[in-house]
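pipeline/complex-builder :: batch 7 item 3
reading input block
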Amino acid sequence: MSAISRRKMITRGLAAAAGLSGLAVAERIADRYGLVPPDHGGIYGPGETLTYAAQRLLTRHSLAREFSRSQISNPPFAIETAPPSDHFKRLQADRFKDWRLAIEGLVVQPASLSLDDVKRFPVRRQITEIACEEGWSYVAEWVGTPLVDVLRAAGIMPQARYVVYFSIEASWWESVDMADALHPQTLLAYAMNGADLPVAFGGPLRLRVPRQLGYKSVKYINRLAVTDSLERFGKGLGSASPEGGYAWYAGI
Amino acid sequence: MAETTWSVDRSTAVATGTDAPRHAALVRVTHWLTTVCFFALLVSGLEIVVSHPRFYWGETGNVLTPALFSFPIPSSRATVPTGYGYVLPDQNGWSRYLHFEAAWVLVLTGVLYVIWGVLSGHFRKDLLPDASDRPVQAFSRALARHLRFARPVAADAWSYNLVQRLAYILVIFVLFPLVIWTGLAMSPAFVSAVPSTVTILGGRQSARTLHFLVSVSLVAFLLVHVAMVWFAGFGTRVMAMITGTPAPTRGPE
């Protein structure tokens, strides 16, 4: 009787140990292949990691749906943002002539680009849908420079794992992994529906990430940082969203 | 006459059922895991609806486009015209985290249950209607019994009747797969890999509306399910789903 229960206990202990070390190994491997999101801690960490890992394995190279011109929403809907700062208003009064996009971090040649510099890169036009986590959506044509072209021109260092991007408005920043940063549809968008990108929609420069929900498409971009780790940014959760209770990865 | 055959059938089930538990351990565990996940999904899903209580059909929809239907409730977003002079606090952050975590547990539980259900013969024995029950008359008779709230026969404590079997088949093989599908159809990353997930449904907003309507159907099932359990003897039936044995009496009295 006691022998059986001892044997049972040993087997169970071994099984538990194997399970735990299995989990540890799985986490190592997942981390190595970029399958663990920066907000993987806490009670929602396991679900978030499963979502991010599964979607990354499934969607590394997939293209967001593109639509026909007849499907463009008219009018599009601009969600309200906080009133612009005085700094922004001064740049706007000058028609954004002095707007600069800084590119820094793990690049061979850090740069500071004007809007005209950005527009000299290859142009991509795409009609995609932007969907808010709240539930609403619209389709529009965005025109801009693929982020990958700007990054390649600056020279991405091999250890790069994420691109962090900042709005000119304080405490508004996000980041994406290299799969999204180098994705051909990730645009530094400066025009929309045949005109300059309106301020309400993020003009003069918005990062459009069409494979993720709207909150990853940060408005008024003025700084990009290429990095191997998100720990040095904010609280180390990857972006301002997890600091406000929202998931870093917004592919669902 | 047919009624007699039916009772005889069931008493055989009673006789063979007394040795095994009423519900297998795997059914019991997956039942309660699903229950917990369902409530987490329901609460977090409703919180997300509150941030935009308008539903649309087609690809796109927002406050500038006409709604298919909407709910006259206050919203957690100032951009939604609700007619209320106040905005509810934003709960979407944790709601979305919880929604997807619960969805993972639910899907994994469901996969385990379906694999076991096929291998153990649970679906064939316990859910597929008996051959004698398949004709339309048998179904209408069982449904009539159900609607009359006829007291369940003792055999019902040991096996599912026809209406139960059909309801469970509908929930397990139609409504749950549909709610998962329509949920995935709202994921911009998932549909980039498998666009037909959303195009078959007629667009992103159609998927969202269907996701809501299927969830409403699941809640309707839950209400009827709990009412039926209550009617049949709440304590006994709930204990049977926890311990496996309907207490205190076994089989026909």
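note: Residues 1-32 of chain A form one domain.
queue -> next item
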